[in-house]
Amino acid sequence: MKEHWEKIYATKDKHQVSWTQEVPATSLHFLHSFRLNKNSAIIDVGGGESKFVDFLLDEGFTNITVLDISEQALKKTQVRLGDRASIVKWIVSDVTEFRPIQKFDVWHDRATFHFLTTKDQIEKYIELASRSINDDGYLAIGTFSDKGPTKCSGLDIQQYSESALEQTLTYHFKKIRCLTEDHITPFKTKQNFLFCSFQKAA
Prior knowledge:
The protein is of the alpha/beta class.
């Protein structure tokens, strides 16, 4: 899996991959709804070349971690950020093998979770997220909806309806709200996403 993603980011620019998003508006909408302090600990899981970190820095957040399986992707983002990259913690890891040394107030994931297609992978992820989020912390997650693609970057994915995602996370997280939206790719095609916010269950 790591070799797959390193090759993708080494050989393609942002206009050649479907997930490019110039403004992560829905992610930012959920983030703002959490009413965080600027020193709140935020992790962007599968952050890669995402511009979510740029907007977090623009808004003055100071405790940001970006995790991705691809070192190439993170290097590209660090170059883009320039001197501001030193403010961010960068972690190269498969999320299911991630061993955090801190807890987070927000766990943000746009389009990593749906690449986990086995029960073992999904359970590992959910347990990890639950352990890694502070009490009363938040999970913001985006996946392909049940009306979205069945593959991405040549890999199988797991689609989710709102009820299916809520049921999958229900033991550890309480749903706040969900919405679906069409992501327009650089190739002008549509991908239907499900975005949901959750709070860690007591």
